[in-house]
Design brief:
single chain, alpha/beta, 2 domains, 9 helices, globular
C-alpha cells in the first residue's frame, strides 16, 4: 500500500511504546486510527495528541487476550471510520529474567494470552475485515528479535517462545493471503526505548492482577539507548509501503541469528553424513 491517506488502521497495544509510535506515524501519514489498549488514561491521552495534531483517532479499551473484547473493538473501528485497511497486532508483554521451571501458571497464561492469543484474535477479527472490501490492505504482527534467536543468560524462554509463534503465524498468514492484495509483515525489533520491562503492571485481574516483575527490570538499562518508538513507527510505515515481510530495526543482531541458523545447517550436514553411511536407516 502506497497511499494511506483517509484509510483506516487499527493498532493494538497503542497506549505506549512501539504501538504508540506506530499509531502516531500512521496518523501523520493521513490514516484514521483506532487505538486499542488496556490502559485507558494513556490511550485517551494519545487520542488527544493525534487529534490536536489534526489527525483522526478513537480510543477503545481492549484486552487482546479476550476474543470478545477484540471483536467488539473491531466493530467500533468500522462503525467510526468505515473499511479497515491496516491492522497492527502489536500488544505484547515481557517475561524475562526467570528460568522456565520457575514461571508460574498465571504468568504462562498471561504471556501466551497477550503475545500469542492477542495475535490470533487479531487475525480472526481483522483479516475478514481486510478481505471483504477488496481494496487491499496490510497486516503487521509485532514479534521481536527474540523471535529469531535466544540470548544466553537472559532467561527469555517464555517470551521468545511466544515471539517465535508470532513469526510462524505471520509466515502462514502471508502464504494464505497470497494474491488477495493484502500484505503481511512481521516486526522483529531489537532495543527500543519503551517500558516493556514494567508491563506486569497491566496484567488483568482474571490472570492474577497487576504486579512488579523485578527479574526483568534489567531491561530498562539494556534498552535505554535504543530507538524511539517513533523511529520504529517510521520503519513500519516504510515496510507497509514497500511490502516487506521481515521488518528489522537494527543490523547488529545479525550474527546472533546467523549463529542459530548455522546450528540448523550443521544438523542437516550431520544427517546427510549419517544417510551416506552403509546400511543407514
Amino acid at each position: 500500500m502506497k497511499d494511506l491517506r483517509n484509510k483506516t488502521a487499527i493498532v493494538t497495544g497503542a497506549a505506549s511504546g512501539i504501538g504508540a509510535g506506530i499509531a502516531q506515524t500512521l496518523a501523520r501519514a493521513g490514516m484514521k486510527v483506532a487505538l486499542l489498549d488496556v490502559q485507558e488514561a494513556a490511550l485517551d491521552d494519545l487520542r488527544r495528541q493525534i487529534e490536536t495534531a489534526g489527525g483522526k483517532a478513537i480510543a477503545v479499551v481492549t484486552d487482546v487476550s479476550d476474543a470478545g473484547s477484540v471483536a467488539a473493538a473491531a466493530r467500533r473501528a468500522e462503525e467510526a471510520f468505515g473499511n479497515l485497511h491496516v491492522a497492527v497486532n502489536n500488544a505484547g508483554v515481557a517475561m524475562h529474567g526467570t528460568p522456565l521451571e520457575e514461571i508460574g501458571l498465571e504468568d504462562w497464561n498471561w504471556v501466551i494470552g497477550v503475545n500469542i492469543y492477542g495475535v490470533v484474535h487479531g487475525i480472526r477479527s481483522f483479516v475478514p475485515m481486510l478481505r471483504k472490501h477488496g481494496e487491499g490492505g496490510h497486516i503487521v504482527n509485532t514479534a521481536s528479535i527474540g523471535g529469531l534467536q535466544m540470548r544466553p543468560g537472559w532467561h527469555t524462554g517464555a517470551y521468545s517462545m511466544t515471539k517465535y509463534a508470532v513469526v510462524a503465524l505471520s509466515e502462514a498468514l502471508e502464504q494464505e493471503l497470497e494474491g488477495t492484495g493484502i500484505g503481511v509483515s512481521v516486526l522483529c525489533p531489537a532495543a527500543v526505548r519503551t517500558a516493556i520491562y514494567d508491563s506486569a503492571k497491566n496484567r488483568p485481574a482474571r490472570l492474577g492482577g497487576p504486579f512488579r516483575r523485578e527479574q526483568q527490570h534489567f531491561l530498562k538499562d539494556t534498552i535505554a539507548d535504543g530507538l524511539t518508538p517513533l523511529q520504529v513507527g517510521e520503519r513500519v510505515l516504510r515496510a507497509i509501503r514497500d511490502e516487506e515481510f521481515f521488518v528489522l530495526t537494527h543490523s547488529a543482531p545479525r550474527p546472533w541469528v546467523e549463529a542459530r541458523h548455522r546450528r540448523i545447517m550443521d544438523a542437516f550436514d550431520r544427517i546427510a553424513e549419517i544417510e551416506r553411511e552403509p546400511n543407514a536407516g
